[in-house]
Design brief:
Layout (H helix, E strand, L loop, with lengths): L15 H18 L11 E3 L12 E6 L5 E3 L2 E3 L4 H10 L4 E5 L6 H13 L4 E5 L2
Parallel strand pairs: 1-6, 2-5, 5-6
Antiparallel strand pairs: 2-3, 3-4
């Protein structure tokens, strides 16, 4: 009586070295293709109904925005490129406080662009009206 004992099969092991190489290549790829943005903070005053009284000695201007992101002042639309001319006009009247009334359809980024342009051109105080 002869027993047919088969050799135990040798299991093929998965080598971890190529797997680790692939993981590092993917990590490198995502690090190189991601965008690095320098985040900045912007101070923001939000007008509320209970605190809407503004000091009378400050000259205040209300600036509305259109649905397309243009600034509206005295029924005239200003794009971001035309905004410096408007700001110079406001500064000639020694206005340093702007109340910004955004349109309901404005994207937040459009409002930020407008606020940033106002700050860059010397408007000291910007209040965002949310009513």
């Amino acid at each position: 009586m002869q027993l047919n004992l088969s050799r135990p099969r040798r299991r093929n092991l998965i080598s971890l070295t190529p797997l680790i190489d692939v993981v590092f290549i993917l990590l490198l790829f995502f690090m190189l293709t991601s965008s690095f943005i320098k985040w900045r903070n912007m101070e923001l005053n939000v007008a509320q109904a209970s605190t809407s009284s503004i000091q009378q000695e400050d000259k205040v201007v209300r600036l509305n925005t259109s649905a397309t992101g243009e600034a509206l002042f005295q029924d005239q639309a200003y794009t971001l490129d035309q905004l410096p001319a408007l700001i110079e006009r406001l500064q000639q009247d020694s206005i340093q406080h702007v109340i910004l009334q955004p349109h309901d359809d404005n994207a937040i980024q459009q409002i930020i662009y407008l606020m940033d342009a106002l700050k860059q051109h010397g408007i000291a105080q910007i209040t965002l009206n949310t009513d």
